[in-house]
Fold each of these.
Amino acid sequence: MTALWGAVILSGFYHGINPGMGWPLAVSAGLMQDKRRSIVVALGMLALGHLIAMMAILLPFSLMKQLFLWEKELRYIAGIVVIVMGLYLLINRKHPRFLARVHPTKLTLWSFLAATAHGAGLMLVPIYLGICSVDSADTGHQAAQSLMRGNIINAVKVATIHTLAMTFAGGILAVIFYFWLGLKFLGRTWFNLDIVWASSLVLVGTLGILTARFGH
Amino acid sequence: MTLTPDPTFHATAKLAMQAPVENYGFTVMLSPDGSQPDGIAVVDLDEKSQTFGQIVHQLIMPNKGDEFHHFGWNACSSALSPMSGHAFLERRYLIVPGIRSSRIYIIDVKEPLEAKIHKIIEPEEVFAKTGYSRPHTIHCGPEGIYVSTLGGGGEDGTDGPPGIFIMDCETFEIIGQYEMDRGPQDKHYDFWWNLPQDYMVSSEWGLPPQYEGGIVAEDLLSNKYGHSLHFWDLRKRKNIQTIDLGENHQMALEVRPAHDPKSTYGFCGVVVDTTNLQGAIFTWWKGDDGTWQAKKTITIDPQPADPDDLPELLKGFSAVPPLVTDIDLSLDDRFLYVACWGTGEMHQYDVSDPMNPVLSGKVEIGGIVKDTKHVNGKDFAFGPQMVEISRDGSRVYWTNSLYSTWDDQFYPNDEGGQMVLARVGENGGLELDKDFYIDFPKGYRSHQIRLEGGDCSTDSFCYPSV
């Protein structure tokens, strides 16, 4: 159980440090408006967009989870969906052009679209389903209604904790670059994570299927 | 795709100024009568090199009659915005359009001395996918590579207005027209933008029948060339405001926004004021009420001349107009260079206060009447024209041809292509380097220059200079 919540936080850090999830935009906002507060506002907007993207994926799964009779099957299907997304991103290396059409100040919308297009929410699904599964095993057979409430609460918790971790990691980088490093290091420390990212999806999906099969 | 961003991408203009200096330049080789294929000359700009200031490689095209003019990079510093997702492109390809043929060459210059053609886009594809013709200015931006055109559809390019189209920045596939709502825009020339502020500015030359066969004097005297600036919502692809500079301000050409994205102003050069033959620079800016404004901030007077010294076109005026045909702004937004192609002068203005430019340097070379020689004693055909500034702002390069048929009208007795270098003083001032003088191969004229690693008229920045 701790390992699964640890995974929620780690995935948050992982998303947060990826410039592709937007922390350089917070630095830019702070510089453009000459205000430190603008960094916080921008990080908040990015976080909100990310949170909505997580919820948009996790909530439907929490509803499906209500059909607990097919729980294993659901975890298999979820694992396959995540693997397919990873493979798709490995094969199609082009960046979605619609992201470039978002107005530069609409960071919430951009963050939502960027997270969704890169399958950031999907990466959490196997972890989330694992948490729900442990939860229901711990509490025995409860009324369907209370299980569902528990699943929704878990979805909100997973999305929120993940987003907080992501914002924390991205925020620290934004502050370090804004106050100390300067933008000179932006180009040098920005690594192409495309393949790593897509492989992470495949890995998480595979682990999801394996744990559904052999563990919780 | 690379592992870390191309080292020639810079977050801010200031960082670009501090980066290593250019080792190579790429300059258009134009066969004015189409008797030879056009090409790209690779010029050695490494001052420590034995071949400094020489053409060290020529890439000659497989077709004749393309008429090269402007060109640009497949990727620039704008790739460092996470919003567009292009951070791992390489600045590797030059996009070189032929404005007469509408053919587009993608040239791989990763190894400048082994520059080679990577892809050719045939004119038919440009016509079919865009409805435009005569591709011209190249900028890389959020949605890929943006290409402005000087002609619409049809044989003479007047079937529909010219505009901008977008190309994929990796495959170089033409995606299609940029504009979703062009408003009153019906002519085109240059364009540029401010990416974080999400606006674009475009300008107007004239329609193909007004320039391809030469300048049409009746059209000029009846103010039928372009004289408007168009402001666009860049990402919505919508014209939000058109400013008419006044119909006497004929041919609003180069658009140079401040490089620092925090600034909301820029400059545009006007070739000739038909009421007095002056050349002019307009400063444009965003007013407090959010609307765009423009004001004439530089005027350059014509110089009296004996009609005997003037070409047919100008004899009646007994004066030579400056003909402001290119301008360029240094990366620190401090100096604006203004090419006076008619009088044969390159002006340098201190534009620290963009509303009150001050002339801070001047070089005389070429010119219709003065025909000033280079400081090394050699001839300079035509006048100073396409100008490019090194990223650090201390070297200014320029060439001499405007446009094949126009060269012949304004300078009927001149021929040849030259590229020269002037050095900038600590606090301004401009002086020709007597050792840098490139005479182009026989039969070729020269036009736009691009510098290895980016220059002052290509890169757009996503982060403000601090």
Amino acid sequence: MKKKLLSAILCAAMLASVLAGCGGNGGSGSSTGGDANAPAADEGEANAGDDASSPSDAGDDAEASSDGKESSGGDASYAILVKSAGNPYNKKMIEGFQEVMDAQGATCVVKEPEEASAEAQIKMINELVAQGISSIAIAGNDADALQPALEEAMNQGIKVCCMDSAVNADSRQLFVNQAGIEIIGETLMEAVYDITGGEGQWAILSATSQATNQNAWIDAMKQVMEDEKYAGLELVEVAYGDDEYQKSVDQTQALLTNYPDLKVICAPTTVGIMAAAKVLQDESSSVKLTGLGLPSEMADYIGADDTHSCPYMYLWNPIDIGRLTAYVSLALVDGSITGASGETFTAGDLGEYTISEAADGGTEVVLGPPFAFTPDNIEEWKNVY
Amino acid sequence: MKKKFNLKSITSSRETSLVIVLVLLCGFVQFRNSAFLTPGMIENLFKNYAVTMIMALGMMCVLLIGGIDIAVGSTLGFSGMCASLFLRDHTQMPAIVIFLISIAIGTICGALIGLVISYGKVPPIIATLGGMYVFRGLAYLVAKNEWVSAYQFTDGYKDFAQSKYLGFGLVNNLIIITILIYILFFIFFKWTTLGRKIYAVGSNAEAAEVSGIKIHRIKIMCYAILGFLTGLCGAIYTSLYASAQGDMGTGLEMDVIAACVVGGVSLNGGRGSVAGVFLGALTMAIVGRALPLIGVSQFWQTAIKGLIIIVAVILNVLAQRAIDKNNLKGREM
């Protein structure tokens, strides 16, 4: 008797967690007024979010969605697949993507893998292909490993573009580049030059040694450094914190111990810069920090005086990346662009964009130069993202 | 004659064999980089690895009864995230309240897992595998996929991990907490009935049951103790790093289990000591800390970490075998 009751309770608990899981997916924005597979979750979503933009009967009647909408907003559905769940940066990118799709009345599907691995993304790409999606916008966890899955998707007529972190040229039609690799390299080097005063030792704290974007930026910085102007600067080490907090802390403290004359650490990764900022500030170190980081996470550490470890840092606007990616997806699907170099398109408020050749042999559109977060503007930005 | 006796006693103790490994390791690192054994460095080491050290004790409780818990990383993420969210929304709360919330949530998570294992008769690795996913999912859910940032924490909470008021201005708070917990558990396992009961259940569950020990209760208690310490570590983690992320503590369970195994805790239950766990956790901390200092290539560090774990365990097993042999000899005579 007791055992039966217990197993019943266990079953109920399991069922509850499954339901909670579904609700969670709906909450993270799986669909907007489209024909989602889970009507219950979808209903809640439609009521909560966007009564205005999605016709209430769109879910029931596929034909209704073509009423008064652009042709691109018909039964086409647009997927965004980010690196991993649980990262506010990815979340803001999704937000921008969804915002544009909602405004166009298009169906958007959001996929967030639990862990930032290529395997998890391949599984999700295959799911999306099976669902008959119109386009996939992906931030690749690996440049090459996704090629078979993405090529298969393109063979099925699905439009593939990538944003934030590129997949290789053969696996995509277009790359939405948050900021040109060269621009970032130049900007960060300029910052290092400025903070060190033109000479001294500096180090880089990166994420994993395989991260596509990190390595491209680091290479770009090294290239910029060959210029006469930077002759006084000495890059002593590129350390990898694997985007893990504890490891990044260990690496930062090792840098401080190993190089007593270090002047600047440049961390072009959101977790790394945060960990380094905390270490430098707690130890009241004279070493300064710059790089690429999230304003909300860095708000406590950005300041012009000696009690703050970071005088200023950079990032692009992830919401704008999401927006631009959405416009690219729409244009690819309605055929106004094919992803060839030289084509132009309009991305709503963001303006006019021209597709250009990318360094890896593919094509790209570049969002713009990175945005500087300084002690003057951090207060207003820390609440944004 | 006397010298020989000393040598024998050294090689026949598991703890001493670990101490020798540690001394050799530290000596080597110190030789390569003289900045290693400085007071500041040692304080940093204990501060940053307080989480691993405290959780290893809890893990020992669970391993002693023949169980295992791979959900601790997720439990830490969940409890730490809940506490941080509460602090974000109620900034007037003192740090101690936040710690208590985190501890309470951790204890409940642990006790739930214990219930499933003891009354549901689910194998521990399966139950905690499930727990690992459930608690991680919950951590993302309660936070709505967001982080709690440094500026959203109160100064009192952030300063806790950096100041020394519990240690009378001499030692960092986290180190004092770690030391107190180790002393407490040393007494608990050595001199209390409850502590000895845990060993009894681990060495021979049936015999323990016959002798009147309520096995279910002991099991649930062990998982709850681990949950308690994990909850505490959830708060320590967020206070130390001034940031709460949904994925914090991912992979931590492996470090904690490795610390126990290196420290001589048997995965079959019934065998392990507080001193051993301390040395095991210390080994993990020193390895994690020292490798970046001696200029080993980044790519080798993980492999070397694994190698050191294996070497430590082999040495340990050899020492254990010597002990068993000696014991048998005694019996024959």
